[in-house]
Amino acid sequence: xxxxxxSAAHPGPPHWRLRIGATAVTLGVxxxxxxxxxxxxxxxxxxxxxxxxxxxxxxAARSGRRRSTGVPPPALTRRLGGLLAExxxxxxxxxxxxxxxxxxxxxxxxxxxxxxEPGRLDSLPWEALTLPGSPTPLALHPTVRPYRxxxxxxxxxxxxxxxxxLRLLVLLAGPRRSPGHREPLLDLDAETAxxxxxxxxxxxxxxxxxxxxxSLTALRTALAERPADIVHIVCxxxxxxxxxxxxxxxxxPATADALWQAVRGAAGVPAVVLAGCSTASPVNxxxxxxxxxxxxxxxxxxxxxxxAGVPAVVAxxxxxxxxxxxxxxxxMYAGLAGGRPWWEALHDARVExxxxxxxxxxxxxxxxxxxxxxxxxxxxxxxxxxAAPPVRDPAGSAAPPVSDPAGSTTPPRNTPPGDxxxxxxxxxxxxxxxxxxGTAPPQAPFTLPLxxxxxxxxHLRLALNVLADAGGGGLVVQGVxxxxxxxxxxELLRLRASSGxxxxxxxxxxxxxxxxxxxxxxGGRTDDPRLRELGNPERPWPARLADLxxxxxxxxxxxxxxxxxxxGRTGRPGR
Length: 575
Prior knowledge:
Layout: E1 16-20, E2 24-29, E3 32-38, H1 44-63, H2 73-88, H3 90-106, E4 110-116, E5 144-148, E6 166-172, H4 188-200, E7 206-211, H5 216-225, E8 230-234, E9 236-238, E10 241-245, E11 251-254, H6 256-263, E12 271-274, E13 283-284, E14 297-298, H7 301-308, E15 312-316, H8 322-337, H9 342-359, E16 370-374, E17 402-403, E18 409-410, H10 457-468, E19 475-479, H11 485-496, H12 511-522, H13 530-533, H14 541-551, E20 560-564
Parallel strand pairs: 1-4, 4-5, 6-7, 6-8, 8-12, 12-15, 19-20
Antiparallel strand pairs: 1-2, 2-3, 9-10, 10-11, 13-14, 15-16, 17-18
């Protein structure tokens, strides 16, 4: 790594570099080597301590219950810190101790990039290393600020330009079926609430968008519409793969290459935060006889993304409880939005979460699990001349709404309120929507800007399942005024992405009004003589409804209705 001296781009102290290899370990700053020693090994005691911790964390992440390992996790992490120091060697450890004390005297931190040789060495939690005379690991050290890097990579860049809002795009994936019989479903609404609360601590400095779909297609569309500084992904994961969603909400594994193809774009590459378990773990390549051959390890998701060109990646090196990961990331984002560098923001979040853990007498410390990876120098992406222009939301240029974690949304200017249909839509008026072959469907009505509808994930999933059921009927969305019924329906229509005609009706309606509206919408799509009979009041309703089912290929036709309920009153709903 090229350690830049203080500059306008990276003000503050120089970044030190700890290179850990099988043949040599060096500590340096800039172009100067301060200490050098023999290569690091992985003795049995070190490997077994790491495995014992991973088994404990894996059990906690799956069930939240404490698992007895014979040694409490805090004692295991203390033992681990000493074993890692022994592996690095006394030359580098003593020099790093002296440098940290010098930085403390000068009143500033010591950013430290750790470059560990790919394979067994870079899979070790070097952030847990403890320096002589200090029980505090590097991850929580009062002076040292560790992060990971590779040769030729630079410190994670600050926001550009400084002082503007932090643009955070959140993708939450909770497939309809749990990824494993031992894996709990993620509480995505709680995750959204934590992020919204964190952004509220820095009013005016954060722009939060939360996608209602956990698919790479939704991510790609959102980035094409408006760029982001950080893409935050919450999902289950396994080494080398994220467990995301497809368009139907089912599980769809995604590799680092697939994610890279989704985030690269004309407006530059955002940083990526992977809140899934083991997203920083290298992949063990099977069927290699030589256990000492480092080529048997493949890079993990985080390493692959930084090598591809992502400027910064935060990922998890082991199984982690989603409550810890969510709270830690929310705290880190508040720091980034407040102008803190990446390594300082992550350090502050780690220290605060560890303080809260000790105050609550929580048995499982998780401070060493999150890792920060530095990517190459940030370069704006180039437009893809073969890519089709994105279909933009007519309201996409409006200011994003302010949303609460439950999904109630205050629309931006020029956006219809979330609980009312457009007042200029007369009873029986229709809005036919016909998509010519080969073109993208137009924006559904009532929708907020993409990513502005926050929460209601469980309700959206339930509604989509009802509408997708071939044997299902319609859907009624009911609630008191102002809870966002119309915005909910707009988001539902966006996710459903049907290319057929859309009929919008408002006010007290009878069957004749519905049938006439359907006939108007279908008028440009078919010349079937049954179309004229839909609006014939002389024919009985069952016969006309049967004709409508045939005309519209019934499996794809569903009705969605909103109505207002008034607390404390009984009788007919207001709508």
